[in-house]
Amino acid sequence: MPQFDDGEPVFRSTRDGRSWECNPRNPIGYALRIVGIVAIGVWLLLVIFRLGPYA
C-alpha cells in the first residue's frame, strides 16, 4: 500500500508541464486511478463478450 499524504495535491503537472495527471500519493488521486483501471477493465469485458450495448 502506498504511503498517503493529505498535503499532496490531487492532480500534479507532468514533467514536461503540458498536462496533468492523478497524484497517487494523495488518497483521492489513488482512488481515481483505481476506479479508472476498473472501468476500463469492465468496458473491455463488455466489448470482448459482446454484452450490454455491444450485443
Question: What would you say this structure looks like, in words?
Answer:
The chain is an alpha+beta fold. The chain has one domain. Helices cover 40% and strands 11% of the residues. It contains one helix and two strands; from the N terminus they run E-E-H. The chain has a two-stranded antiparallel sheet with strand order 1-2. A hairpin with a 6-residue loop joins strand 1 and strand 2. The protein is elongated, with a radius of gyration of 15 Å. It starts with 10 loop residues before the first strand and ends in a 7-residue tail after the last helix.
Could you provide a short overview of the structure?
A two-stranded antiparallel sheet has the order 1-2. It contains one helix and two strands, in the order ββα.
